[in-house]
């Protein structure tokens, strides 16, 4: 694709929002055309560049997301589940690509994306990085190759300001492991160990969450058997990789048929 795509960013004052602004400015095929924040936020009504502590860039931060999407070809959304569902309806109405990096969405909330996906291209992933999506594929394959005598444990580490646990990436990896074993994650998930929990149940997929400091993101998938362990690992050291992946998804979605996609589709690794 050589045509420039106009991008609107929601939650623009957040760490990912500001990283996305920087990446859009540096990308030859993208142009920032909209910046959205919640009503009452200090940035609303300000020039975005000034609000970020730099020179004016002519983009005024607004709390009117529908207006901000009118001149866009894609909206990139790393916000909160309730906000994301609202943005999905607006993106469908505008007929633009909706890239969703929001984590912590329940199965019921994810199911609500089906209606807007009938009219819009939705690319949703718990993690936008190439490496993590390759890790997802490997997790599925290893889980399919090993029986339930190998316990599966997903260990994830993030910064101390992350509000959801397990992380969206950890859940994505858990889904891949469960798919490899031919079960649903809801049937075998174990993420609430505390106190006298008893012995581990055969076939369960466990989750452990670590929060501390400024850890960008680390994920291990451990297959622990008698006398041996297999550990698949991904370490993210730069948050910009998630923003780059989101931009890639926004560009990939141009001209696609309406529907729900993920980063494996974007990377040409989907089934």
Question: Which SSEs are present, and which pair or pack?
Answer:
Elements: E1 5-10, H1 15-26, E2 30-36, H2 48-51, E3 61-62, H3 65-69, E4 74-77, H4 81-94, E5 97-100, H5 107-111, H6 114-117, E6 121-124, H7 130-145, E7 151-158, H8 168-181, H9 185-188, E8 189-190, E9 205-211, E10 217-225, E11 228-236, H10 240-252, E12 259-261, H11 263-266
Helix pairs in contact: 1-10, 7-8
Brief summary:
The chain is an alpha/beta fold and 271 residues long.
Explain what this protein looks like in three dimensions.
This protein is α/β, with parallel strands linked by helices. It has 2 domains: 5-124 and 239-266, NAD(P)-binding Rossmann-like Domain (Rossmann fold), CATH 3.40.50; 130-236, Dihydrodipicolinate Reductase, domain 2 (2-Layer Sandwich). Helix content is 35%, strand content 24%. It is elongated, with a radius of gyration of 19 Å. It starts with a strand and ends in a 5-residue tail after the last helix.
Helices, by number, come to 11
How is the CATH topology of the largest domain named?
Answer: Rossmann fold
CATH superfamily of the largest domain: NAD(P)-binding Rossmann-like Domain
Strand order of the largest sheet: 3-2-1-4-5-6-12
The averaged pLDDT comes out at 95
Low-confidence stretches: none
Give the second-level CATH assignment, the architecture of the largest domain. Answer: 3-Layer(aba) Sandwich
Helix content: 25-40%
Descriptors for this entry?
single chain; alpha/beta; 2 domains; 11 helices; 12 strands
